């Protein structure tokens, strides 16, 4: 058993290092051939779980290794929460494109009932939210569900507003169908997003449940005079 575990760890280490020839020899040993089913539960005599191998390669941005792994595991969905975390911390358009071509469902990967790949990409990686902008646009361009992870609100839009994403992202989400409810509108006002508060009125994606009375109350609590003026002006324009 110990020897088998060491063998599995060696394969994971090799995926991280990017030694494709050695990886291929390991798969020959395991008799794992192209057309194999994605492996979620590893057995004593099997390679490590597919998500572990893919995550190791993503973490070190080894595109060639990921290409090879996906050519082996062609059957099944490779969406997994650890893969989502790795993508956010190491955003790479080449890698997400490969994963999407294999499993289009990955754009709607759910980490837990309240977090998705989209919402967590909005919050950014360890260094800067700017680094995840290309990944964020990829998800939106490929139909990521803006409402997954939320009840009665666009969780994606709310995450973008709260995380300080630029208006290009917030506006794009609105244009893709995310409506602005009380939670989203209040978040934009609370973090003093003049662009968001003004843009929501201009785009006209205000939810039917976002009544003028609610916005008046929100406006009263806004400390920034410019944001308050935008909100009050928008409310006046709706009347």
Commentary on this structure:
With 239 residues, the chain is mainly alpha-helical. The chain has a domain at 1-76. Helix content is 59%, strand content 4%. It has 14 helices and four strands. Strand 3 and strand 4 (115-116) form a beta hairpin. Helix 1 (2-17) runs parallel beside helix 3, helix 3 (50-59) packs antiparallel against helix 4 (63-72) and helix 7 (117-123) packs parallel to helix 9. It is elongated, with a radius of gyration of 22 Å.
Give the gist of this structure:
The protein has 239 residues and is mostly helical. The protein has helices at residues 2-17, 20-30, 50-59, 63-72, 81-89, 93-102, 117-123, 133-141, 155-162, 167-175, 182-190, 194-203, 212-220, 225-238; strands at 36-37, 73-75, 110-112, 115-116. The protein has a domain at 1-76.
Describe the SSE topology.
Layout lengths: L1 H16 L2 H11 L5 E2 L12 H10 L3 H10 E3 L5 H9 L3 H10 L7 E3 L2 E2 H7 L9 H9 L13 H8 L4 H9 L6 H9 L3 H10 L8 H9 L4 H14 L1
Parallel strand pairs: 1-2
Antiparallel strand pairs: 3-4
Nearest-angstrom radius of gyration?
A: 22 Å
Low-confidence stretches are none
Structural category is mainly alpha
What's the average pLDDT?
82
Strand % is under 5%
- The strand count comes to 4
N-to-C CA distance: 73 Å
Strand order of the largest sheet: 1-2
Tally of helical segments = 14
Instruction: Write down the overall geometry.
Output: elongated
- Helical content band: 55-70%
Order of helices and strands: HHEHHEHHEEHHHHHHHH
The main pleated sheet reads as: 2 strands, parallel
């Amino acid at each position: 058993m110990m020897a088998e575990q060491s063998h599995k760890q060696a394969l994971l280490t090799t995926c991280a290092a990017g030694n494709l020839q050695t990886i291929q020899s390991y798969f020959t040993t395991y008799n794992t051939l192209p057309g194999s089913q994605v492996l979620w539960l590893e057995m004593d005599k099997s390679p490590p779980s597919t998500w572990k191998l893919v995550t190791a390669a993503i973490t070190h941005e080894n595109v060639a290794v990921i290409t090879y792994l996906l050519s082996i595991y062609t059957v099944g969905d490779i969406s997994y929460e650890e893969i989502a975390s790795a993508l956010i911390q190491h955003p790479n358009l080449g890698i997400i494109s490969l994963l999407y071509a294999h499993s289009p469902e990955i754009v709607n990967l759910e980490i837990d009932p309240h977090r998705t790949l989209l919402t967590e990409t909005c919050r950014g990686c360890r260094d800067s939210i700017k680094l995840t902008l290309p990944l964020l646009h990829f998800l939106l361009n490929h139909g990521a569900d803006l409402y997954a992870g939320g009840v009665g609100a666009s969780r994606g839009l709310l995450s973008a507003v709260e995380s300080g994403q630029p208006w290009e992202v917030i506006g794009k989400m609105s244009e893709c169908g995310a409506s602005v409810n009380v939670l989203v509108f209040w978040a934009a006002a609370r973090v003093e997003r003049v662009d968001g508060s003004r843009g929501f009125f201009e785009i006209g994606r205000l939810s039917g449940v976002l009544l003028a009375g609610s916005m008046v109350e929100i406006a009263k609590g806004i400390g920034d005079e410019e944001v308050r003026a935008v909100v009050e002006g928008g409310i006046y324009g709706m009347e």
